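EI: anyone free to look at a 349-residue chain?
SC: sure, send it
EI:
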Amino acid sequence: MRVLLTGSAGFIGSAIGRQLTDAGHEVVGVDLMLASAHGSTTPPAGVHQLDVREAASDAWADLLRGVDVVCHQAALVGAGVKVADLPDYASHNDVGTAALLAAMHEASVDRLVLASSMVVYGEGRYACPDHGRQLPPARPVASMEAGDFENHCPVCDGPLDWQLVPEDARLEPRSSYAASKLAQEHYVSSWVRQAGAAAVALRYHNAYGPMMPRDTPYSGVAAMFRSSLERGLAPQVYEDGGQMRDFVHVEDIARANVLALESVVAGATPRFAAYNVCSGRPVTILDVATRVAEGTGRDLAPQVTGNFRPGDVRHVVASPALATSELGFTAAVHPDDGLRAFATAPLRD
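SC: here you go
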């Protein structure tokens, strides 16, 4: 199949491109080459330097000709913690996606795989041993200052247990980036209905692996821990380190995309479906810092600081069951192994 891959020069996009090519598919790569994401504005060989927000242009029409499916990875990522970030996220992610969908319709391309994110969930799923599933309120700052970081039952005030989050959980974005990813999903699902199209949204959990950006807004916490260790500093772990997350290797994410692209082209998925892309092996943030430190061979144990960011979620861990049953995807890289190897893997400056 012929795949138009946006964000093809990025951390995840480049891994998808390699796996698609290895599987015998033809890849048409496009990337804006934002300096903040790549450190360079010069595209790699074979990558077309175009802005997805200008997808109505003749250049895009030429590239879309003969395409079977679009893999849309291009996005402005990061936490988006400032109100001033909102226009950039809305422009690159939401306007860009809307422009791409309109251009695809004009070119009679009606299959899409979208890079979404677990951030659309906000907090994860919780249950009280006595009162069942509960939606916790925001954690009080005073409680976190006192060292209590857990979510509590709104009925009895007891600590809540985290549970795996399925794809049909409530969606509650808590940052500019998260709101833009949910908006992308909404645009795509609307396009599916209006255009008689089909699409898959892949909700990535915490991505890591070789060629991850170093020390940029696009870096994840694993890369930040590694950077500290390389400077001879112990990784600084927020809260009590007990925050539960799922870390999924970039090669597993790429493989999930290949499976989704092949499935949506074959008509083997629902008209619109969202899938968690995760390892299925939850880890604490302290575990992440410890595994990365072990991989470096340095005698620098992580430091649990007790610091916190108001508004951060406590636990969010996904269920991989739907992606396994409908896409045939199961992560191959165990976080214990992948995070240790990540400690010495090449990064992108």
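EI: The radius of gyration is 20 Å.
SC: 👍
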